[in-house]
Amino acid sequence: MARIAAAARDAHIDARRGELLDAALRRIATQGFDGATVEAIAREAGVAKGTFYLYFDSKESLLAALIERHSLIPDLTRVVDALGEMPPEQAIPLIARAGWRGLRERLTLLRLVLREIPLREDNARLFMERVILPTNRLLERYLDGCVERGSIRALPTLVAGRAFFGMLVVFAITQEIFGGSDLVPMSDEEITETVAGLFLHGALARPNAAPGEDVQV
Amino acid sequence: MARIAAAARDAHIDARRGELLDAALRRIATQGFDGATVEAIAREAGVAKGTFYLYFDSKESLLAALIERHSLIPDLTRVVDALGEMPPEQAIPLIARAGWRGLRERLTLLRLVLREIPLREDNARLFMERVILPTNRLLERYLDGCVERGSIRALPTLVAGRAFFGMLVVFAITQEIFGGSDLVPMSDEEITETVAGLFLHGALARPNAAPGEDVQV
Amino acid sequence: MARIAAAARDAHIDARRGELLDAALRRIATQGFDGATVEAIAREAGVAKGTFYLYFDSKESLLAALIERHSLIPDLTRVVDALGEMPPEQAIPLIARAGWRGLRERLTLLRLVLREIPLREDNARLFMERVILPTNRLLERYLDGCVERGSIRALPTLVAGRAFFGMLVVFAITQEIFGGSDLVPMSDEEITETVAGLFLHGALARPNAAPGEDVQV
Amino acid sequence: MARIAAAARDAHIDARRGELLDAALRRIATQGFDGATVEAIAREAGVAKGTFYLYFDSKESLLAALIERHSLIPDLTRVVDALGEMPPEQAIPLIARAGWRGLRERLTLLRLVLREIPLREDNARLFMERVILPTNRLLERYLDGCVERGSIRALPTLVAGRAFFGMLVVFAITQEIFGGSDLVPMSDEEITETVAGLFLHGALARPNAAPGEDVQV
DNA sequence: AATGAATGAGGGTTCATTCAT
DNA sequence: GATGAATGAACCCTCATTCAT
């Protein structure tokens, strides 16, 4: 019975933490971390100010929880795992589309990360280790497989993978967060296909030239 | 004489504003906009707190001035203008290196932009119009020229240009701002050459296949 | 049966109150009344926060109970009652030693009283009536007997008694509570014998008697 | 000119600090340190809450300033210095009266000290070193002189001096702070003369009995 | 009887902004 | 023009008290 009660309590605690985290993300998205008061976050979650501190040690500790909670990793893991040995010509566009979708669904978190991470060295490190690098390695592993199978040329796959995904991130920042889509609209297809196309073939018109050499400029 | 005095006064005002902006950028870089107090900024500029308000209406108004003041445009304009009709195989690496250098020299501003712009719709719009899009158009123009001359394939050059430069930005964010270089060091060459190489040739091993088609996945 | 149950319940209530009072005294000793939270007191007593309010109306009401509960009276009553008509030359040193011992055993309570009583007029009155004056009257009665028997001179015995005991209190405050014993150590004997000696003979060298000898303390 | 301005500013700072300290003492006397809010203190001093922090680092730092500021030392120094080699029969009553007067004028500070010092180990040490011991040594020096001149018997003068002054302190606590004067009024004379008389002659009726020996009980 | 989640008033502290000098 | 003392709104956090379970 005690066990059941404890389990119920834990569930309740998790639920409340979740509600507070959701509320926090909403406020922080529009007002920034400093701008979102604990009172506002609590009220948005439907509880009183003091209740916040039953679930988080401090406002600061909410940040880490927030960042750890949302990440692209689960999504991308599923997608990349499903690729198996699919040739890059098919896989890369798939990844681009999935990545773009994932980013658009996480714009709020992206705003948060861009804003709050750089000032917090510990969190920055944590974020690199827990979110960016894992995602990056996922791509690296797939690309390494492609290189082994000879379907893509030898290149620093970690760097290349980040460059690939990074292009999507930059469009998310400029078009969605900085409001670029109001000034210069770009369709989702335009973005994902251009990014995928560039990553696969580059921009050169006659790429039959021996690759790699020109890079030496 | 009155005119001369007025001119001198204007010069003085500009100088003071400049000192304050520099001081502000230094403080904001390490503490964020909210964390940098007017008092600290003023003291860093060597004046008293009240003096700040002789040169700026408010702390907020300093932000716009700050963002407008620093941009990559002059640098890149010079570089891209100098390219003329240089073939992309040579030009793209040059641009990548210049862009990377410019970014690394402006990390402070990049931090500021990532942190403060997203929350301020007006500034975001302004930043897109005044900084991102001009830079983007610069590249677009060069790439359009290449397309015309047949040296690169037909692709949405505005999108492609942003993707190209965006790769560099993402490395600046992850490696320099998020501290990735402590965890996974990457040399400047590795970054610029991989980015340039990808943009030129893509990742495929046998890019002699008719380009563009595979993208249709 | 009902009566037995009621008695058992009362005993239980008293026990719980006692545990809470002990716990409270321990917390308050180190952190002060304001610094000791109800939660901490309850936890120290091994019960939950809410339970506290089953036994006390409020945190404030705990104070009165706490002060009333501990007092020197029982100890001193026993000691003074046992004196009977013992001459002051013997009795006063005995009282000084017993008083000193009692004070040292009640330092926690002394801290509490010094801290919390002065701000609470009602409690102050209560404390005077219930603790200080009874103790004082105890001494007064003994001293009055001495005066009657001619063993001490006529003096305001209430005042004198308080002065006597007060000397001990002041050493408890300065040496034990203010930490004077770290700076200027004084032995228990030095304190009790000097106090007793002063009270009996005063400081003068020849109150007609042979001087110097009195130093035998 | 700058020097003059600086001097004026320092004077102003001292004045403001003084006003705040006075105001703080008044509030703290009636409400305790914790009960006296910074806002209330500031308002009592006629300034805004924020102004408080221009003159004190924190509320806590006000305490030390407060305690250091008021002490009996200057008064007593003057009195005791003026005694010279005056025989104790005259000097002790003088000291008792001056000490009593000084204590009554500093009841507020006494309340503060009793309440706030015990919980703050650092302040307790400081208070012993800076206030109690210096006062104590003042008396010690005078008593040592008397012993040398043979006017009082050899006794531990530091202990005796504290016992002497301590009697006055206890009357201040019980009569003035605990409200004893409402229950059992005692005139100033009764207190000072009894204390002085006890210190000089003790309580015994025929102190020509060989003193000291009886103490050995 | 016992619990502990929830509340919200209230406190210390910071800081953008004003204004008299 | 330059200063910096003064202001007070607003924030984070604590904790006595209540009440549904």
Overview of this protein structure:
4 copies of one chain form a homotetramer. Chain A is 76% helix and 0% strand. With 217 residues, the first copy, chain A, is mainly α. The first copy, chain A, has 2 domains: 2-66, Arc Repressor Mutant, subunit A (Orthogonal Bundle); 70-203, Tetracycline Repressor, domain 2. Mean pLDDT of chain A is 88; it is low at 207-217. The structure holds a DNA duplex (21 and 21 nucleotides).
Give the radius of gyration of chain A: 21 Å
Q: Please, what is the average pLDDT of chain A?
A: 88
Taking pLDDT < 50 over at least 5 consecutive residues as the criterion, the unreliable ranges of chain A are: 207-217
Give the amount of beta strand of chain A, in percent. under 5%
Span between termini of chain A? 73 Å
Q: What is the CATH-assigned architecture of the largest domain in chain A?
A: Orthogonal Bundle
Q: What is the approximate shape of chain A?
A: elongated
Overall tally of structural domains of chain A: 2
Class based on secondary structure composition and strand pairing of chain A: mainly alpha
Largest interface, with counts of residues having CB < 8 Å to the other chain, equals: C-D, 81 and 76 residues
Total strands of chain A: the figure is: 0
Report on the biggest sheet of chain A: none
Q: What is the CATH first-level class name of the largest domain in chain A?
A: Mainly Alpha
Helix content of chain A: over 70%
CATH topology of the largest domain in chain A: Tetracycline Repressor, domain 2
Order of helices and strands of chain A: HHHHHHHHHHH
